[in-house]
Amino acid sequence: MGECLCTCGDERQNVLVFACSGASNLGQITNQSALRLMAEGFGKMFCLAGIGGGVESFINSAKLAEEVVALDGCAVGCALATLRRQGIEPTYYLQVSQLNIPRKPEPEVLPEEVEKVVTAVKKAWGEKKDGNLPG
Protein backbone atom coordinates (compact mmCIF):
# COMPACT_ATOMS: atom_id res chain seq x y z
CA MET A 1 0.00 0.00 0.00
CA GLY A 2 0.97 3.64 0.11
CA GLU A 3 3.14 5.51 2.52
CA CYS A 4 2.03 5.35 6.13
CA LEU A 5 1.26 8.76 7.55
CA CYS A 6 0.67 7.79 11.17
CA THR A 7 3.30 6.33 13.52
CA CYS A 8 4.97 3.80 11.26
CA GLY A 9 8.69 3.45 11.04
CA ASP A 10 11.60 1.37 12.19
CA GLU A 11 11.59 2.69 15.74
CA ARG A 12 9.75 0.74 18.39
CA GLN A 13 6.57 2.21 19.78
CA ASN A 14 6.17 2.29 23.53
CA VAL A 15 2.50 1.44 24.27
CA LEU A 16 -0.17 1.10 21.57
CA VAL A 17 -3.83 1.01 22.60
CA PHE A 18 -6.37 -0.73 20.37
CA ALA A 19 -10.05 -0.30 21.15
CA CYS A 20 -13.29 -1.74 19.90
CA SER A 21 -15.62 1.07 18.96
CA GLY A 22 -18.79 -0.96 18.52
CA ALA A 23 -22.26 0.53 18.25
CA SER A 24 -23.45 -0.24 21.79
CA ASN A 25 -22.61 1.84 24.83
CA LEU A 26 -19.80 -0.61 25.71
CA GLY A 27 -18.01 -0.06 22.40
CA GLN A 28 -18.29 3.69 22.73
CA ILE A 29 -17.11 3.60 26.36
CA THR A 30 -14.14 1.53 25.21
CA ASN A 31 -13.30 4.01 22.46
CA GLN A 32 -13.63 7.03 24.78
CA SER A 33 -11.44 5.29 27.36
CA ALA A 34 -8.70 4.71 24.80
CA LEU A 35 -8.86 8.37 23.74
CA ARG A 36 -8.59 9.45 27.36
CA LEU A 37 -5.64 7.14 28.03
CA MET A 38 -3.87 8.66 25.06
CA ALA A 39 -4.69 12.21 26.16
CA GLU A 40 -3.22 11.43 29.57
CA GLY A 41 0.02 10.16 28.04
CA PHE A 42 -0.55 6.48 28.86
CA GLY A 43 0.06 5.34 25.30
CA LYS A 44 -0.92 6.00 21.72
CA MET A 45 -4.31 4.94 20.43
CA PHE A 46 -3.73 3.03 17.21
CA CYS A 47 -5.96 2.08 14.29
CA LEU A 48 -7.69 -1.25 14.82
CA ALA A 49 -9.42 -0.90 11.43
CA GLY A 50 -6.01 -0.77 9.74
CA ILE A 51 -5.04 -4.01 11.47
CA GLY A 52 -8.32 -5.65 10.47
CA GLY A 53 -7.93 -4.36 6.93
CA GLY A 54 -4.54 -6.02 6.63
CA VAL A 55 -2.62 -2.76 6.10
CA GLU A 56 0.96 -4.02 6.35
CA SER A 57 2.47 -0.79 7.70
CA PHE A 58 -0.06 -0.77 10.54
CA ILE A 59 0.52 -4.45 11.29
CA ASN A 60 4.30 -3.98 11.28
CA SER A 61 4.05 -1.00 13.63
CA ALA A 62 1.90 -3.02 16.03
CA LYS A 63 4.33 -5.93 15.94
CA LEU A 64 7.19 -3.56 16.77
CA ALA A 65 5.34 -2.10 19.76
CA GLU A 66 6.88 -2.77 23.14
CA GLU A 67 3.43 -3.09 24.72
CA VAL A 68 -0.02 -3.65 23.20
CA VAL A 69 -3.24 -2.93 25.08
CA ALA A 70 -6.48 -4.34 23.65
CA LEU A 71 -9.81 -3.04 24.93
CA ASP A 72 -13.10 -4.70 24.05
CA GLY A 73 -16.54 -3.65 25.16
CA CYS A 74 -18.15 -7.08 25.33
CA ALA A 75 -17.50 -10.80 25.23
CA VAL A 76 -17.58 -10.90 21.41
CA GLY A 77 -13.96 -9.73 21.62
CA CYS A 78 -13.59 -8.02 18.24
CA ALA A 79 -10.39 -6.12 19.12
CA LEU A 80 -8.70 -9.22 20.51
CA ALA A 81 -9.74 -11.36 17.53
CA THR A 82 -8.61 -8.70 15.05
CA LEU A 83 -5.17 -8.43 16.62
CA ARG A 84 -4.68 -12.18 16.95
CA ARG A 85 -5.71 -12.77 13.33
CA GLN A 86 -2.65 -10.71 12.36
CA GLY A 87 -0.32 -12.46 14.83
CA ILE A 88 -0.37 -9.68 17.42
CA GLU A 89 -0.76 -10.85 21.01
CA PRO A 90 -1.75 -8.10 23.46
CA THR A 91 0.37 -7.50 26.52
CA TYR A 92 -2.84 -6.62 28.33
CA TYR A 93 -6.49 -7.27 27.52
CA LEU A 94 -9.57 -5.78 29.16
CA GLN A 95 -13.21 -6.50 28.47
CA VAL A 96 -15.27 -3.55 29.70
CA SER A 97 -18.36 -5.66 30.41
CA GLN A 98 -16.35 -7.46 33.11
CA LEU A 99 -16.30 -4.18 35.06
CA ASN A 100 -20.04 -4.57 35.73
CA ILE A 101 -21.02 -1.94 33.19
CA PRO A 102 -24.25 -3.16 31.57
CA ARG A 103 -24.60 -3.31 27.80
CA LYS A 104 -27.24 -1.01 26.32
CA PRO A 105 -28.22 -0.59 22.67
CA GLU A 106 -27.90 3.20 22.96
CA PRO A 107 -24.35 4.51 22.50
CA GLU A 108 -24.56 6.65 25.65
CA VAL A 109 -21.21 7.24 27.35
CA LEU A 110 -21.22 8.22 31.02
CA PRO A 111 -18.05 9.89 32.35
CA GLU A 112 -17.98 7.64 35.43
CA GLU A 113 -17.93 4.55 33.19
CA VAL A 114 -14.97 5.89 31.21
CA GLU A 115 -13.25 6.67 34.51
CA LYS A 116 -13.83 3.08 35.67
CA VAL A 117 -12.14 1.68 32.53
CA VAL A 118 -9.21 4.13 32.61
CA THR A 119 -8.63 3.37 36.30
CA ALA A 120 -8.74 -0.40 35.67
CA VAL A 121 -6.15 -0.17 32.87
CA LYS A 122 -3.82 2.05 34.89
CA LYS A 123 -4.18 -0.16 37.97
CA ALA A 124 -3.38 -3.27 35.94
CA TRP A 125 -0.38 -1.51 34.41
CA GLY A 126 0.92 -0.70 37.90
CA GLU A 127 0.51 -4.37 38.81
CA LYS A 128 2.36 -5.29 35.61
CA LYS A 129 5.36 -3.35 36.80
CA ASP A 130 5.24 -5.53 39.92
CA GLY A 131 5.06 -8.65 37.74
CA ASN A 132 1.38 -9.43 38.29
CA LEU A 133 -0.41 -8.19 35.18
CA PRO A 134 -3.87 -9.71 34.75
CA GLY A 135 -5.22 -10.23 31.29
Write the layout of secondary structure elements.
Elements: E1 15-19, H1 25-39, E2 44-45, H2 48-52, H3 56-64, E3 67-72, H4 78-85, E4 92-95, H5 111-129
Parallel strand pairs: 1-2, 1-3, 3-4
Could you explain the architecture of this structure?
With 135 residues, this protein is an alpha/beta fold. It has helices at residues 25-39, 48-52, 56-64, 78-85, 111-129, and strands at residues 15-19, 44-45, 67-72, 92-95. It starts with 14 loop residues before the first strand and ends in a 6-residue tail after the last helix. It has a 4-stranded parallel sheet, with helices on both faces. The chain is 41% helix and 13% strand. Strand 3 (67-72), helix 4 and strand 4 form a beta-alpha-beta unit.
Which class do the helix and strand fractions yield?
alpha/beta
Estimated share of beta-strand residues = 5-15%
Mean pLDDT: 87
Shape: globular
Cα radius of gyration in angstroms: 14 Å
Order of helices and strands: EHEHHEHEH
What's the total helix number? 5
Extract low-pLDDT stretches.
1-5, 7-12, 131-135
Number of strands: 4
Strand order of the largest sheet: 2-1-3-4
The first-to-last residue Cα distance is 33 Å
Helical residues, percent: 40-55%
| Biggest sheet record | 4 strands, parallel
Number of separate structural domains: 1
